[in-house]
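Folding Task

Wanted — backbone structure
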Amino acid sequence: MAEINAATVVKLRKMSGQGMMDCKKALEETGGDLEKAMETLRKKGLATLAKRADRETTEGRLVCNRSADGKTVAMASLCSETDFVSRSDDFIAATEKLGDYALACTADSGVENLAATVIGGRAFSDIHHEVVSKTGEKVGVGDFVRYSLSGPGVIGSYVHFNYKVGTIVQIETSGDAVSAAIQVLATDIAMHVTALKPIAVDKDGVDPAFLLKEREIAAELVKGKPANMIDKIVDGKIAKFLKENCLVDQPFVKDDTKSVAQMLADTAKAAGGTAKIRRFARIEIG
């Protein structure tokens, strides 16, 4: 067995971020070859993933990155088994890198696309394997979404202080003046979505199958009523459900005297134009 000097072990530690003993062992196994030792450490990360494949990753950290011009925003989550790991320096560093990769990804969704994204010659999958090896836990990308503007508009974003839940919302506007006027409101609407959990932008965005199920539940609850009243009662319950669960109809979290749609319309009108919420994505860990 080749003798491994301390300087080589320290060098591998700086390259990999692994513990001294793990680095020494990897070097001993590979005859002191740094590149092969790095590959051994990566394989260790893959082995940990395979071994812990059935473990739940209900902890983690959310990251949201915005392009310099504000026209592209990406949000992603990196999940772990324990809160202890999600608060570690290695995990936080990996999450910060995840934000860069999410923004650089050419696809707008799909964790497999994010994992394959390359920055500076390294795919995020390499960073993923390293953090698994360092922490000894199952770690994985939970969700990923990327929005880009193709015309006038704003992408608002909000990440809660615990880094476990956040939202991005895309708003189309009639012009740049309106876009500038609703910047703060867009962030507030993202915060609103994070807090109130709407299921769709408006009633047209609600899954018809889901709505049919809600009608069935509502009808079951009033089945003892006269037949000529059931449809009216069910219609009323569904209307109430939609108002409570569709973003544009919800009372705005910062001013419940107005709906989200009214608040947006008033702000846009004051700037001489119009604005409309196109879509939103809410990501939560756990």
User: Anything to note?
Assistant: The mean pLDDT is 89. The chain has four domains: 6-51, 53-148, 150-206+246-286, 207-245. The radius of gyration is 25 Å.
